[in-house]
Structures are given as structure tokens and as C-alpha cells.
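Justification of computing resources. Each target in the renewal requires a structure prediction run like the one illustrated here; the chain below, 135 residues long, is used simply to show the kind of job we budget for.
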Amino acid sequence: SDQVLPACRFAAASKTARTDWSSFTKGYFLNRDTLVGVLLLVDASVPTQQIDLDCANWLGRNNVGLTFVFTKCDKVKKGKGGRPDENIKVFLENIGSLYPRPPPWIMTSSTTGLGRDGLLLHMSQLRNYWDNEAT
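Resulting C-alpha cells:
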């Protein structure tokens, strides 16, 4: 479907490439009449990352529908990683200062299958919403 934007990985890209992708994605999000929402993947196995907060803030300011998909919820990294449930709690506390009501969120793990059915149902509901609005 042309309504799906491929996943973009900013962390491993150069600053120039991140800027180019940022311009592309912002234009895409603002100019797609058929866009019904964005799934923002957030790595729950690491502490809150500023880039995730910045993305969520920008999407909210521009009234783009958003769902947080917390990934790697089964992984507990030693050292500074922390526990996924603690990282998610801190992330949502930070989001609370950006949104009067937090966007929906789903915990997932590709290893255990956690959240798979919920994520598929959520995407189906978004699609049904769009289909009903378009008719």
C-alpha cells in the first residue's frame, strides 16, 4: 500500500543523512492526505532517547496521529540499559509533559511474540477508520 512509510533508522546514519531523511519524512507526514497515523518504534531496552521525544513532540505539534510501539520488551540489558518496564514508565512520564493525554502505546517483542496480535488489531482499526472516512 502507498500509505505505508518504510522504517527509517536514524541512529546509524550520518548527520547529513539524518537531516535529509528528516526533511523527507516531515514532508511526507504533513502532505499525505491518506495518512491515518504513525507508529513510532521506541527501543524499550534502553533509557529514553531524546530523538524519540523530539519525534513525538514534532508529530504532536503537527497533529499527526501517533501510537508508540515499544520494542524489545523482553530484553534486560546489563549496565545502563535498565529494565524495559522502567524505561517505558520514564518515557511515558516525559511524554506527559508534551501531550495532555498520552497517545496509545503497545509493548512488543519479536522474540516472544508479545504484542503481535494487539499491534495487528490496532493497525486494522486504523485502516478501518480510514476506509470509513473515505467513503
